Amino acid sequence: MSSAQPIPLPNDADLARERGDLVAQAEALAITSQPEYERAATVLGSIKAYLAQVGETFDPICQATDRSHKLAVAKRREHLEPGLRAEKIVKDRMGIYVVTEERRAREEAARLEREAREEETRRRAEERQAEETARLAEAEALEAAGMGHEALAVLSAPMPEPDPIPPPPPPTTIARPTASGISTPRTWKAKVVNFKALVSAIAAGNAPLTLVEVADSELRLYARSTKGTVSVPGVEFYEELGISSRAS
């Protein structure tokens, strides 16, 4: 594949010389009087004319390059979009499968744990019932042998407290579905669902200030519309002087 040919550029030697002269004139200005202010206006007009000449020289080239770039970007997007859409469909469905399988595995682990605890509870109840039956049989035997006092002692003796049911084992590691060349990293994300609550938390010191950023464009719009007549806590409104000139 051949490399792209560079776009031919016009001879800009004259522009380079004029550029240097303009910078030298601007740096030499000392505006302390009305005549000097008027002289500065003349220099500014020359600068505007120079900038216009730069635009006339290079704007057509930039526009042609921009059109070519836009065409290439559009063509690339035309071919990329179906592939990206298909990729998203497959990834979404794989993700649904992974989440579904993990949920199923967690539910199965919870079911097995619940059944194990129920079985342990049932086993302990049967053991206690067996102990009660054995103690009653012992007391009846003692009573039949004329040993009523001993039989009463057997029946009155407290039953031993059973050992506490052990805590459940640590959560089972969920085995995710696997496939060659596929990984399933987890990324925590966040979205604002109540902006006022977030701002209140920041103001109260319960959330970092870095969670919000200043909307400079909105501040500029507010400054232009109010012209400093309305104060906003934490904001300083100020006026900048601009200089506008026409090409000479």
Overview of this protein structure:
63% of the residues lie in helices and 0% in strands. The chain has 2 domains: 13-179, no CATH class; 191-229, no CATH class. The protein has helices at 13-28, 34-144, 148-156, 195-203, 216-226. The protein has 248 residues and is mainly alpha-helical. It is built from 5 helices and no strands. The mean pLDDT is 85. It is elongated, with a radius of gyration of 43 Å. Helix 1 (13-28) crosses helix 2 and helix 2 (34-144) runs antiparallel to helix 3.
Question: Could you write a compact summary of the structure shown?
Answer:
The chain is an all-alpha fold and 248 residues long. The protein has five helices and no strands. The chain has two domains: 13-179, no CATH class; 191-229, no CATH class.
| Mean pLDDT across every amino acid position | 85
Judging from the principal axes of the Cα atoms, what is the shape?
A: elongated
Which stretches of 5+ consecutive residues score pLDDT under 50?
none
Number of strands: 0
The total number of structural domains is 2
Coarse structural class: mainly alpha
What fraction of residues sit in β-strands?
A: under 5%
Indicate the radius of gyration in whole angstroms. 43 Å
State the distance separating the first and last CA atoms. Answer: 49 Å
- Given the structure, what is the number of helices? 5
How does the major sheet shape up? none
Q: Tell me the series of helices and strands, N- to C-terminal.
A: HHHHH
The share of residues in helices is 55-70%
Index terms:
single chain, 248 residues, mainly alpha, 2 domains, 5 helices, 0% strand
